[in-house]
Amino acid sequence: MTTLYFHNARLIDPEGLTDRPGTLIVDAGRIAALDAPSPPKGAQVIDCAGKCLAPGIVDLGVQIGEPGARHKESFRSAGRAAAAGGVTTLITRPDTTPPIDSPEALEFVNRRADSDAPVNIHHMATLTRNRAGREMSEIGFLLDAGAVAFTDGDHVVTDTRVLARCMTYARSLGALIVGHPQDPGLSRGAVVTSGKFASLRGLPGVSPMAERMGFDRDMALVEMTGARYHADQITCARSLPALERAKANGLDVTAGVSVHHLTLNDLDVGSYRSFFKLTPPLRPEDDRMAMVEAVASGLIDIICSMHTPQDEESKRLPFEDAATGAVGLETLLAASLRLYHAGALDLPHLFRALSLNPARRLGLEGGQMAVGAPADLVLFDPDAPFVLDRFTLRSKSKNTPFDGARLEGKVLATYVAGHRVFAAGDA
């Protein structure tokens, strides 16, 4: 394996929270040295031209269409999109058809991912069989088969006794549960956040309290069982005090938020633009700003894309009937950099939420700019402007809310274990 010597780089360290010029040596797929004054003999020298070199993004909560919806996204297309977006590790959701609820199904997606994707891929498995909320999945066997966490996604387990049993068993094995804080009764049929905008548009809305109520229930069960818990998306200011109390009380709880809820608000739905139909729905601007502040303070730990590919047929429908979700692998970094350019987050804190924290929460090696860490790296220009054309995205589905948006921040190259898997200009 070729030794690489990156010089004239702007090194972004999310662990030490530093942003400084330096050099970096990669050998045998790992970071071998920092700030070496000269390249080792025979090394390939890479001039970074003063651009940023950071740990590759670890994206927690990606939907892939295999099995069951390969026409929407395959491991190959998702892997190419991830590499182009500076994402070096994907954590996939089990909401496939059929769901990933058995060791055999997990073995299938492991095999497909290993053969088709140029980036690292780890998989979550379902918490209950068929995501039906009635019977616990084979958590122990799925852990042995490589599952990194357990979730039913947006199929909230409504039977509290079943969820308590799942949490108790998961705690005995040290397994991580990923919850979707939402009261399903209040949110059923809703497509936007309730308020003046929803009323003016004649769209069924859901109160932000549905998220708060779902989160409060989950926190009570975490306190009762001692389970490890991660909230996939916290999107409302009213949920933050409960999250703060849970952490202050010593519960093993973390939380994430999607980049869409950090950079868009409910008014972006505009004239029923279905690419902006997400779950949870986009929130008012006050909630968006509260989420940005929570990420900056570290109260919310993780920024993710919640990549959810949908084909044209399912999105080109009246707003109420359109499928929910948006693709985000290739736009995650550029969209997140809106927070940097707005002065809300510096780059080390941004990559703490994009790379270091998700890797730590899942017990993975990535997300570090340190000697011995895997050489999963992204080289990017944070100031390069461009207008996004959704048809240039490498994902099979093109349902991005950033179509036609002006963004800043281009990925120049992506490396996985020291191998370059993307370079600007690649088709």
UniProtKB/TrEMBL annotation:
Molecular function in Gene Ontology: allantoinase activity; dihydroorotase activity; metal ion binding
Domain of life: Bacteria
UniProt keyword Zinc present: yes
Cellular component terms (Gene Ontology): cytoplasm
Listed name of the protein: Dihydroorotase
Lineage: Bacteria, Pseudomonadati, Pseudomonadota, Alphaproteobacteria, Rhodobacterales
Domain Dihydroorotase catalytic as annotated: residue spans: 50-235
Database matches in InterPro entries: Amidohydro_3, DHOase, DHOase/Allantoinase_Hydrolase, DHOase_cat, Metal-dep_hydrolase_composite, Metal_Hydrolase
Zinc among keywords: yes
Keywords linked to the UniProt accession: Pyrimidine biosynthesis, Zinc
Chain ranges of the Amidohydrolase domain: 344-422
GO biological process: purine nucleobase catabolic process; pyrimidine nucleotide biosynthetic process
